[in-house]
Specification:
Chain A: Belongs to the TRAPP small subunits family. BET3 subfamily. Chain A: Keywords: Endoplasmic reticulum, Golgi apparatus, Neurogenesis. The complex is a heterodimer of chains A (157) and B (139). Chain A is an alpha+beta fold. Chain A contains 4 helices and 4 strands, in the order H-H-H-E-E-H-E-E. Chain A has a single domain (4-154), classed as Muramoyl-pentapeptide Carboxypeptidase, domain 2 (2-Layer Sandwich), CATH 3.30.1380.20. In chain A, 52% of the residues lie in helices and 15% in strands. Chain A has a 4-stranded antiparallel sheet with strand order 1-2-4-3. In chain A, helix 2 (30-51) crosses helix 4. With 139 residues, chain B is an alpha+beta fold. Chain B has a single domain (2-136), classed as Beta-Lactamase (2-Layer Sandwich). In chain B, 35% of the residues lie in helices and 24% in strands. Chain B is built from 3 helices and 5 strands. In chain B, strands 2-1-5-4-3 form a 5-stranded antiparallel sheet, with helices on both faces. In chain B, helix 2 (93-112) runs antiparallel to helix 3. The chains are: A alpha+beta (157), B alpha+beta (139).
Chain lengths: 157, 139
Amino acid sequence: MADEALFLLLHNEMVSGVYKSAEQGEVENGRCITKLENMGFRVGQGLIERFTKDTARFKDELDIMKFICKDFWTTVFKKQIDNLRTNHQGIYVLQDNKFRLLTQMSAGKQYLEHASKYLAFTCGLIRGGLSNLGIKSIVTAEVSSMACKFQVMIQKL
Amino acid sequence: MAVCVAVIAKENYPLYIRSVPTENELKFHYMVHTSLDVVDEKISALGKALVDQRELYLGLLYPTEDHKVYGYVTNSKVKFVMVVDASNTALRDNEIRSMFRKLHNSYTDVMCNPFYNPGDRIQSRAFDSMVTSMMIQVC
């Protein structure tokens, strides 16, 4: 990522573009968020292929999650995940205290409601990366004034 | 110089398979198919002692009387299988590794193409020309 401002601006435009192109009568936000998430999914698949080209094979699931928290997050957002928690039964919570895509927004309460639109792409990114590594998961995100938390639920088949 | 190159998806169906056209292609397809069992055995956690678990290159899978089969697995569980002529003894391990590296690089480029859906057959011309450069030139 040569210049992170470029990606930030593109991402903001992407979100507003998807919402503008939705039909007039379509009040529910669900479909737009799904579109953004699917975009992130495809990008995540390609990105992971490129990043894992030279790394050694992963031992287990925790190894993969650690890779996502350190190398993947550093390459995309120039910082690591601040906190990774797990219940060892397939649920991981990744906490980022200063999420790059949201730092430009002020922390007022009315803005926080709309923050979920801006997190959809990143949720898709994580889901796409994991799916290419062989892990089916559901990724959700929530934001509070302090931090962003991405919750990953691994689906055991 | 390879005689047959195959890219197998993680669900074990071929994404790309190409062999030297003069010989019976079905025989190579069959060889690639049987080598998948050997690949699975090598990447499973049970066979710890045999192969360094952290490496992507799997090495010689099995030799037959005229051919040798080599394998490579990516982190996304996509397998590359290459069949070479056994009479070509000048081919060293390093060369095989570099051929697999080139394959992996081209595969990554195909994956990042937004018009490519993961799971489809690979139809990229750049990929084709890279594989042609690795196969035996048949005049």
